[in-house]
Specification:
By secondary structure, the protein is an all-beta fold. It has one domain. 0% of the residues lie in helices and 48% in strands. Pfam families: WLS_GOLD. This is Aminopeptidase N.
């Protein structure tokens, strides 16, 4: 587990070494929350924050490619029994403005899902141009 990405030293140029995982709904105060089938949709947003560096230069209109996997489980499934729902690759264009203080990035819409059970979203950042 990486607590701070600024201290991470990759062992290769394959950025798939860094995997972001989000489980929704999550546990709050030791209670596993549940989604209601009455929920109409789930919206996922990815906010990219890039720290300015003199070594790496920003490329206008840079592409961010994401490998996204989504799984689910039902109340009848074991805690580690996840079923694959979808796996896809998506590309988003980074729109950044560079100020003297820092680089500011816009929020990217990652997914919009229209049927809810408990889902595991596993997002692997595997390539940035």
């Amino acid at each position: 587990l990486i607590g701070d990405l600024s201290s991470f030293t990759p062992s290769s140029f394959d950025l798939r070494e860094i995997v972001f995982v989000a489980q929704m709904p999550h546990v709050r105060e030791r209670i596993q929350l549940e989604y209601s089938p009455w929920f109409q949709f789930l919206l996922g947003l990815l906010q990219v924050e890039v720290e300015y560096s003199d070594v790496f230069h920003y490329v206008d209109g840079a592409l961010l490619e994401l490998e996204v996997r989504m799984g689910y489980r039902t109340n009848a499934d074991a805690a580690d029994d996840w079923h694959n729902l979808i796996a896809t690759n998506i590309t988003r264009t980074l729109e950044c403005t560079i100020s003297d203080e820092k680089v500011k990035m816009i929020v990217l819409s990652e997914f919009n899902f229209n049927s809810l059970n408990e889902h595991l979203i596993k997002t692997s950042l595997f390539k940035a141009h």
